[in-house]
Amino acid sequence: MAATYKSKIAALSKRKQSAVRGAIRVAGRQIRDLAKELAPVDTGYLRSSIRVNFDFQLTRHYYRAQIVATAPYAIYVELGTIYSPAQPFLGPALRAIVPKLPELIRQAFRKK
């Protein structure tokens, strides 16, 4: 599946590739912001550890937004343990925003 997207991205004009990167940036930031809203707060460290990193390898036509929570206990909050129930924040944020990505790309194409 990834190869299909790579070949489609490679066929796009430079302006359209730039639009795709812009849409991925918007979606990545929206996911980060929603994850921060959804993250439970005790000290605020978990919320402040949520970040988005972008990886645009133009020569390989590889575009990625990686949303991470760097707090060491983030995985235990997200998935829960035998002692505490899950309090998901990353998964729901992804599920809310990723379906909007095609529309974000269409909007970016109209602007370019």
Give the key terms.
alpha+beta; two-stranded antiparallel ribbon; elongated; 112 residues
Question: Please, could you describe this protein's structure?
Answer:
This protein has 112 residues and is α+β, with helices and mostly antiparallel strands. It has one domain (2-101). 57% of the residues lie in helices and 14% in strands. It is built from six helices and two strands. It has helices at 2-11, 14-38, 45-48, 74-79, 90-97, 101-111, and strands spanning 50-57, 62-69. The protein is elongated, with a radius of gyration of 16 Å. 21% of the residues are buried. The mean pLDDT is 87.
Can you describe this structure in just a few lines?
The protein has 112 residues and is an alpha+beta fold.
Order of helices and strands: HHHEEHHH
State the low-pLDDT regions, or none.
none
Outline type: elongated
- Helix vs. strand class: alpha+beta
Helix content: 55-70%
Q: Biggest β-sheet, characterized? A: 2 strands, antiparallel
Strand content: 5-15%
Query: Please, what is the average pLDDT?
Result: 87
Strand order of the largest sheet: 1-2
For the termini, the CA-CA separation is 26 Å
